Amino acid sequence: xxxxxxxxxxxxxxxxxxxxxxxxxxxxxxxxxxxxxxxxxxxxxxxxxxxxxxxxxxxxxxxxxxxxxxxxxxxxxxxxxxxxxxxxxxxxxxxxxxxxxxxxxxxxxxxxxxxxxxxxxxxxxxxxxxxxxxxxxxxxxxxxxxxxxxxxxxxxxxxxxxxxxxxxxxxxxxxxxxxxxxxxxxxxxxxxxxxxxxxxxxxxxxxxxxxxxxxxxxxxxxxxxxxxxxxxxxxxxxxxxxxxxxxxxxxxxxxxxxxxxxxxxxxxxxxxxxxxxxxxxxxxxxxxxxxxxxxxxxxxxxxxxxxxxxxxxxxxxxxxxxxxxxxxxxxxxxxxxxxxxxxxxxxxxxxxxxxxxxxx
Length: 360
Hints:
This protein has helices at residues 2-16, 26-33, 57-67, 88-96, 118-129, 135-139, 145-153, 171-186, 190-193, 209-225, 231-234, 295-298, 333-338, and strands spanning 40-41, 47-48, 246-258, 261-270, 279-282, 288-292, 305-310, 313-314, 317-320, 325-329, 343-350. The protein is an alpha+beta fold.
């Protein structure tokens, strides 16, 4: 009986001395070794990474902020719904990084506890890893199609099987795409890139049906956006506006105190005087910005496509021809101004018909 007990004890010591990983996936093992991801230790000492489970926006923000190098500058902007959230530090770093890795949702919040979709995941890793992604690229990106194509160009889909971009992202997809993004960033330094042995920069990207559809949509949009490169020749004040032309207006909102009164100031930057409003009004809740136009200018917006962006994120916009106004939601405006920062708003009009020159 003593001999049997001795053998059992040896058996337990040998197989319990080191936890067993739940996967032989080398990408995941690398992230575990670097302590970027972890899991739940089970009763048999194995580690459950819950790879088939969804991942929240906050959880992935923490992973990204831990895995990649970010700006050392102190955050200047915080989303309303993350002020008291456990992941605020990570979210602030990503949103304030010059690459604007994370942005507001359509309704003006970050929603940290919502589950991340594949499209949102792809956009985050593209913004983090695509070196030549410009502010103009982000501004005129077709959601989510442009990001899908950019991710494919960077080979970020290597080793992945994504069925639907709009579906919730699994933890495994998030982990492996993060590994791919880390590799793309490391490729600039050959010495650092050597440790990412599971990524082949020359490998052919996988083929997905939704990639072909995304490519078709982007190609269709190119005609409308092609003239942006030469907008100086197109939208100069004394040039007629042709159908399909894109015109830009940038509004920089700031706040200052004079004699204990708080004043909001708006500076307008535009190449075409037609876009300049008669005046700009901010509501008392700092939630909306209204551009007031006279009839001669207001008529030019009829049958045109109007877009507004803050930090590359599309905002809700309403054009009311009866009172000749354009009203734009301004999420985070009060907080940005209170912090002493400017709120930069980009307004775009796509002419859906020829517009004759309107003299001021």
